[in-house]
Amino acid sequence: MQHEAGTVDSMEAEYVSAADNVLTQPDLLGAILSWLSPAELLDCARTCCAFRLEVDALLTQDGVLELKEGDGVEEVTDGLLLFLAKQRLPGTIRKMDVAGCSALSKTAIWRAARFSPCLKELIATKVGGASWTLLEVQRLIEACPSLRYLHIDCKSKGVSQDLIDMLQHPALAVEKLTLHRSATNAATAADTPPAPTTPPTPSLAVGTGGEVIGGEGASPSAPDVFGSSLRRCPSLKELDAGGDVLEAVDGVFQISRALASADSNLQRLIMPSVPSMRRDVGVLAEGLASNSKLESLELGCNFIGATGAEQLASALAGHPTLRSLELPHNPLLGGAVALGDALVHNRSLTNLSVPFTGLGDEACDALARALCGGSTVRILDLSGNRLTGAGAAVLASGLAHPDKPNRALTSLNLTANHKIGAEGALAIGAALRGCALRVLSLAGCGIGHAPCGRLVASLRGSAVETLDLSSNEIKDEGTWELAWGLPGCAVRDLRLAVNEIEDDGATELLSALQAGAPLDSLDLRGNRILTDPGTSGALLAARPGVNLRWQNHPRAD
Question: What's the whole-model pTM score?
Fold first, then answer.
């Protein structure tokens, strides 16, 4: 026993000696600590003086405080930021980066800036759950006069002089700008606090008047100011201006000019429900044709017709960077054919979304040509249109062409094309083994129960992992066919909501899961499955990933 005790004491002494050696090697210690989150670093700092000194040095390398969350790191909270700014690192922070810390409030950032008299650079995008208002920006600047560089996302009630001043200020870097509420309905200068009479601070001065440009009495050159401000703001990457907020400043025209400018760095442009878009879509297409940086364009609910679609298609064909084009709820009709033809030449677009645009089978012909011609589109949304079984068959031929099969498209949404029917579903199913589709949505396509057996057989050997067959009246008969074939498929997410499935269908689905069907998620909402104790429905509901809410099974009194 004495020998064993001596061995343990010796091992403990060696362990303590090794730990001391680690603490005396700052390079190794710093490398280990660099993997920890700020909260974990603070826990380490409470351990000993060596850790505390190393943590302080790590947190403020070159006066930089960088707080990040994600990839398993816990939320950065108001308390953590204020603790660092007020107690641990007061007066030493010259640059603070809290971008993406959504749990942080803007009030906490403002208070932390007050306790950082040497702060010169603040990066605070995507914080606080919403963009910064002009008043919040002014308050932040006044709290920290030492600021020389402020990187934020901002929202404004219309296009005001304050907004123009902010966009043109050389020290303010606005990454995202959201313009909400119509300029004609926004608060007027009389309803807002008057502009300060004291001289502005020499750095980052922004007014607080809130006067709106382009209303009654505005000078004829007022709209030009907005466009030139956009061109002089190289940090601006995202612009969201919906509704009629742009009408008073001829906003579509001004934004189009900014797109065509070499100084513009816009990457994402969102302009839904703009009344003048129907008239000015050609001008926007011209700006897009001269642009080489935009990556995402969203123009939902703008009454863009066939002519406008053709104009956008001409700009899309040779655009080098546009990756996402979303045109939902626009009466494109036959103009969608031009968009499909443009994809034959375009090699940058990966997402095309044209739901509820009235396109028909003729668009499928153009899209099939694009798919065979090497289109790079990975996500295609054609939901809510007028496609029939014949159109779906043409589209399927483009997916699995014997000479040029498409290997790019991974997600196809045909939801709410109720004329596709069994014919279209079987045609799409026959193409699955020859393409790369992983997500297929046929919800509300009038499929019925008859093709379910052949459809699930075609899933074997395919890459499909998500299959949506909701609202197709497949009933128990179709559910049986699906359940019997599921164990040999790669489907992990199966959606069968609102299909009038009853207890017999639930029993077969339960058997499929017990037989090894690799489902992680099974949506059975809105059916007629009993969930009383001891039923198949109750056993299904107990399994993880199964959703059996809102069953409509008739019950006897």
Answer: 0.81
